[in-house]
């Protein structure tokens, strides 16, 4: 199944790389495309469990889905994730 997920705190290509790298490692998830201009993640998944893992991973990386609580801890985590993406690109 294909889905588009709207997320928060997505700023740049570093964020995109971190998200793409991490979500691509989740079993049952493929074709991950992240767009910081629209704050969206497009992907294919095989089960609801895979999608749940994607949403949990996004939150842990500091990119909660739109509508989820976005406290200062998540915002700070997203900056760290962003820097890691920039360094590893």
UniProtKB/TrEMBL annotation:
Residues in HMA domain copies: 1-66
Pfam hit, one: HMA
GO molecular function, one term: metal ion binding
Coiled coil (UniProt feature): none
Name of the protein this chain belongs to: Copper chaperone CopZ
């Amino acid at each position: 199944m294909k889905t588009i997920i709207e997320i928060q705190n997505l700023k740049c290509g570093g964020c995109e790389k971190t998200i793409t790298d991490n979500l691509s490692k989740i079993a049952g998830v493929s074709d991950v495309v992240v767009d910081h201009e629209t704050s969206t993640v497009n992907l294919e998944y095989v089960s609801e469990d895979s999608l749940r893992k994607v949403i949990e991973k996004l939150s842990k990386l500091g990119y909660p889905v739109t509508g989820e609580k976005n406290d200062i801890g998540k915002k700070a985590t997203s900056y760290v994730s962003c820097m890691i993406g920039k360094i590893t690109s």
